[in-house]
What does this fold into?
Amino acid sequence: MTNDKKLLSVNNLSVTFGTGDNPFTAVDRISYDVDAGEVLGIVGESGSGKSVSSLALMGLIDFPGKVRADSLTFEHTNLIGLSENARRKITGDEIAMIFQDPMTSLNPSFTVGNQIMEAIEVHQGGSKKERRAKAIDLLQQVGIPAPESRIDSYPHQLSGGMSQRVMIAMAIACDPKLLIADEPTTALDVTIQAQIIELLLKLQREKNMGLILITHDLALVAEAADRVVVMYAGQIVETGPANEIFKAPRHPYTQALMNSLPESAEGHDRLKALPGVVPGALDRPQGCLLNPRCPYATDRCRVEEPGYYGPEGRQSKCFYPLDDNGRPTQ
Amino acid sequence: MLYFILRRIGMVIPTFIGVSLFAFALIHLIPGDPVTVMGGERGMTATERAELEAMLGLDKPIWVQYFQYIGNVLQGDLGTSYVSREPVMSEFLTLFPATIELTVCAAIFASVVGLTLGILAAVRRGGLLDHTVMTISLTGYSMPIFWWGLLLMLLFSVNLGWTPVSGRMDVIYWIDEVTGFMLIDTLLSDEEGAFTAAVQHLILPSIVLGTIPMAVIARMTRSSMLEVLGEDYIRTARAKGLSKRRIIVKHALRNALIPVITVMGLQVGLLLSGAILTETIFAWPGIGKWLVESISRRDYPVVQGGLLLIATIIILVNLLVDLMYGVVNPRVRHSK
It folds into this structure.
């Protein structure tokens, strides 16, 4: 992989909450890269730190949350250590984000046009007339019918799908190089979900944006992402190209996630679910964080934390990565 | 929006009828009657008494009295004071500007200080400023008005001599009454220093009267702001790279103000009732003092009329608040 394609490079990012002797680590030393024009899927169940890590990228973690990283390099600029003002110039301009629930993510007191134009005003300026024309054009791009009149609508007059389109229009208003989509379809109807994803991918291709797609929908990631990062309890447990990960997961957790898909339970009465839940703040096990739930755990897993094994770009955090047949190696 | 306004105005009518009934009933329920008071210590004969009652219309059944009264009110006639023989309406109109002036100044003090403190406390949540503001507001809310008024008077008027002790104006100035509002009339007159004197007279009563509403508004603004600052759309605004100031002033405040405006409207009622105490402490020649004196004289028409007028003002203010609601909150405006 050559360096000049690299858009974002996350190096040992941690986010902790709370002060005192025992702060809760929501994101634990994660590292990954995003190339220009690439779709990176981040998957994991609730509480695995997917959203928190992306909020940290945007600089949106507030006290008592604490963000640490060796570096967060975006286009040769290390975001860590930038002043608040300098950081804000990049946020919303070159890195933009859309959120899970579009209905609550738009300000109910202002028209959608006002909210889109605001993003343009802050980063690009221009006359009010120009900004309005641009906002109408953006609404057109995200597939909102009759944008000339819709621009003066208030959020409560729009459906969930329409609101998410507006959110997308707002996010791409300044032609960002990186778009973070945090569960963009979770709050929407199933029929709308596909349309929104299609729209996101279309815009991503047209504008050659890097796209980080955060989701717990494996099928979606398999379809949309070039590369995948699997997170568990704040850590990255596996990374690799999407097709390889789905063909032959190396980490027992990824395997368990895929086994829990309804498709893999065909012919069985019950879904194969991983027993237990993600460990919370106070019950983090020693050693590998998955060991209480892992069917293959050994004594070593219960004491020692595994490092990353495997070739560059296809790594898993397991002492005994699974082979192509889904059996642990010794 | 027009439909919203019309519907809201329509709701005023039943409220008004209820209030008139209530004001009428209340004054007849309290013990004592005006005729006895008029007789004074010497008392009067039964014939005199009957004559007087007939003259005042008090001999008729109470419901007849009510309908006669309402009929007159609808024609703009609130009756004549038993004591001064002046029409209630004209007495009211003479005294009302003084109360308005005091109430408006108190409301401005309460809103400006309350909103500022509330916003600052919310933005600096958990900090020293937040704790200070909350302590001030709790103290302000718990303080009895008359005691607070006397304390301030003692400190600023008696010990420091910064402000006059009481009244609306110094006797050395002769101010022609044009609008009835001292601040405006002094500006119109050619008396030098009169305006400054009028302001000085207003400061303490306004602060005293505005303290409780200020405390309420500060607390309400703070909690409303805190709630709004945790909303998803604030995160969206931050993700757009907006400055902190813009997020607070534009995105948060606009939404946080909705409940605060309601509270402000309710405080107007409190201001008018608080004015009764404040006016008494500072010898402020307004409605409050007039009403208190009329109650002790059993001056039925004045008390009834005064209550009715004050209630009407409160109803109108609340109507105004509701209409403002529609301006601030698009969801109200569009609902049918």
